[in-house]
Every structure is written in C-alpha cells, then in structure tokens.
Amino acid sequence: MSEQETRGSALGADDVVLVTGAAGLIGAVVVPHLADAGLRVVAVDRSPFASPKAELVLVGDVRDSAFVEESLRPFGRPVDAVVHLAAIPSPGQVPEDETLTQNVQGAYLVLDGAGRAGVRCAVAASSVSAYGYAWAGRDLSPPYAPIDEDQAPVTIDSYGLSKMVTEQVGAFATRRWGMPTTLLRFPFVGDGDRLAAQLAQIRRNVAGSRRELWAWLDTRDAAGAVHAVLTSGLTGHHVVNIAAPDTSTTVPTAELLARFHPSTQVRAPLRGVESLVDSSAARRLFGFETRHGWRDEATTP
C-alpha cells in the first residue's frame, strides 16, 4: 500500500492547493471546504464555472499539457498541493475507450506534472469500482468481506480499469519524483436530493445495489477526507478506501451477503448495517472519520 519515504509535509494556512474538476460533484464541495479551512484554492475545470470561495478560477482541459503546466504555477511558483478530481465520473457518458484514455491521460499530466514541478503532495479520486464489481455487467462476488485495499481487483469494465491505472499513475509519480500521492477509493457519493433519490431507489429494490455493495459516502465527508490527507503530512503512495461505516439500506449486512453474495467469505463479524467496505486504513493513516449519516435525517427512507 505504500512506497518509499518522500518529501511530504502537512499543509497549513495560506498554502496553495490546485483542485481539478472543481465544478464537479465532489470538487464543488472540496473547494469551499479547503478555503474555509484557511487554504488558498485555485479551482480548475474545463467549462466556465463559478467558485466564490476560490482565490483563482482557471478554465481549461487537464489533457492539455501546457494548460496543466500553467495551472501548477498560477502565482509564479508551484502550488503546495494538488487535488485531482477531474475525470469522466461513470461509465456510459462517452465510449469506453474515451473513458479510459481521458481519465488516464488527465491523471498522468496532472500527477506527473505536479511531481516534476516540485509540488509537496497530491490527492486524487479513485473509486471502489477499481475492485471490479460495480460496472462488471454481470454479478461478481468479493472473495472476502469486509473488502480492504489488499483485495485483488477483478475489473472487466473500462471505467474501473481507468481508476486502476490512475492509482498506478499516482504510484509512478511517487517513485519518479518523491511526491506523496494518496488515491481515495470513493463509492457512491452524494447528499441532499441526490442521496435521497439513491436511498429511495435502494428501498424499492435492494438487489439493484448488489454490485455496488450498498456502499455510500456523504459528499461533505469526501471533502473532509481530502482535507485530512492534505494536513496529515502523509508520505509515500497510498490507495485508501473512503466509505461510510454503514450501508445505504436498513437490511442487515449479514443478510445482504447471504442473499446476494453467498460465496463471499466473512472475515470479521458484520454487525447490524455495517459497511462491506473496510475504511480502517483512513483512520490509521490520516485520522479520518466520517461525520455525516442518513439514518436520522430527513432523507431516511
């Protein structure tokens, strides 16, 4: 899970963070979260957008090497950190080959470019889809649960593959330039109406989320995880699960496994509605704990 010791140091007030994909689902929450925490944020996306909390907004494509190079030095010196969120966020939006090439090319130019420029650390979005279950097009079951980062992927879709390769790009940047990289494997992410719609859909058809393993994360916690990494001083390369500690359904987790993934070996007791995604590495490596749940809020099904 980790590479050699590197140059990382914890970010503090007035350090500059470049956020790509700043107008996206997660990016739009990450930018104000980091700004409110005292960081200076440079927000990047490929279409014009508003980002009131950002100190600087740049519009361009992260597949344009010249634009990336300029974005990494917006004030004449390298930014202190990069948060790379720009990507095709799910399958089916563009042809499969474009999903792969766009996501990997963007990750390479941003992360390798950041290392080359002397950026102190980088965080990037990966996905639990890298394990291979969510978009496989057929039912696949994990060999064991809860799923930790050591579980071997069985990916057979281009989106999951793009996330696997993005993780390798991060490892490459750490080896090549000594820049710490942390790849966060997110599940379904949402809050408000988006989360309410997801919960309602699962309430109507719990089987429909079997390939996603009923994993979820509040968008605010995704932003919190990014901030936790940036301020941790973490060194090396890491791939880390970030999921809520519970599932997105009221059906007990042990029952879900018995019904939909009976071949999966249970390695630890599954109490109540405990998540099938093990996020304990996030607590151990950078002290992250989720803060937002859905069960006592208005979105509860």
Automatic annotation (TrEMBL):
<dbReference type="InterPro" id="IPR036291">
    <property type="entry name" value="NAD(P)-bd_dom_sf"/>
</dbReference>
<keyword id="KW-0560">Oxidoreductase</keyword>
<dbReference type="GO" id="GO:0016491">
    <property type="term" value="F:oxidoreductase activity"/>
</dbReference>
<keyword id="KW-0520">NAD</keyword>
<protein>
    <submittedName>
        <fullName>Nucleoside-diphosphate-sugar epimerase</fullName>
    </submittedName>
</protein>
<comment type="similarity">
    <text>Belongs to the NAD(P)-dependent epimerase/dehydratase family.</text>
</comment>
<dbReference type="InterPro" id="IPR001509">
    <property type="entry name" value="Epimerase_deHydtase"/>
</dbReference>
<feature type="domain" description="NAD-dependent epimerase/dehydratase">
    <location>
        <begin position="17"/>
        <end position="243"/>
    </location>
</feature>
<dbReference type="Pfam" id="PF01370">
    <property type="entry name" value="Epimerase"/>
</dbReference>
